[in-house]
C-alpha cells in the first residue's frame, strides 16, 4: 500500500507532515516564500486545508491538514514543485483535530531567537528534519505554532 493509498481511505480529517530541501537561492528566499504563501492561502481556502510551513537552514518542514483528497492533491503538487528536493514523508494519516487550524497557510523562519526550540528537540548540532519521526516533527511544528501565536499577540499589544 502506498503512502497515498494509506491517507486516502476516508474523507475524515487527515494530517501529512513532510520535510524537503529548499532549491531556492538564498537571495530569492523571501520572494519565493511570499509567492508560496499567497498561492497556498488561495488554494487552501478553496479546499479547506490548513497548515504550517517551517523554513530553516535550507529546509522546509510542513504540515498539511484537511480532507484526505485535498491533502494528497497538495502533496502531489509539492512533489512536482522544483523548489523542493529530497522530499521525505514524515507522517500521514487521520488526525483527531486540527493543530494548525488558525491558518490556511502560515510560514515561519526560525531565527537565533528561536534557538530554544532546537535545543529542546536536540537538533542543535545540525538541523536535519528528514531524520525526525512523525511525532518529533509534529512537536517541532507545534512549538513553532506557539512562537507564531506569541509573535502575533506581541504585535497586537
Can you describe what's shown?
With 157 residues, the protein is α+β, with helices and mostly antiparallel strands. It has one domain (3-156): Alpha-Beta Plaits. The protein has five helices and five strands. A five-stranded mixed β-sheet has the order 4-1-3-2-5, with helices on both faces. Strand 2 and strand 3 form a beta hairpin. The longest helix has 23 residues, at 134-156.
Gyration radius, in Å: 15 Å
The secondary-structure element order is HEHEEHEEHH
Quantity of strands, as a count = 5
Supply the CATH class.
Alpha Beta
Shape: globular
Number of domains: 1
Low-pLDDT runs of 5+ residues are 1-10, 153-157
Sequence of strands across the biggest β-sheet: 4-1-3-2-5
With helices defined by DSSP (H or I, 4 residues minimum), what is the helix count? 5
The overall average pLDDT, rounded, is 81
Major sheet summary line: 5 strands, mixed
CATH architecture: 2-Layer Sandwich
Assembly type: single chain
Beta-strand content bin: 25-35%
Q: Classify the fold: give the CATH topology.
A: Alpha-Beta Plaits
Structure described in brief:
This protein has 157 residues and is α+β, with helices and mostly antiparallel strands. 41% of the residues lie in helices and 26% in strands.
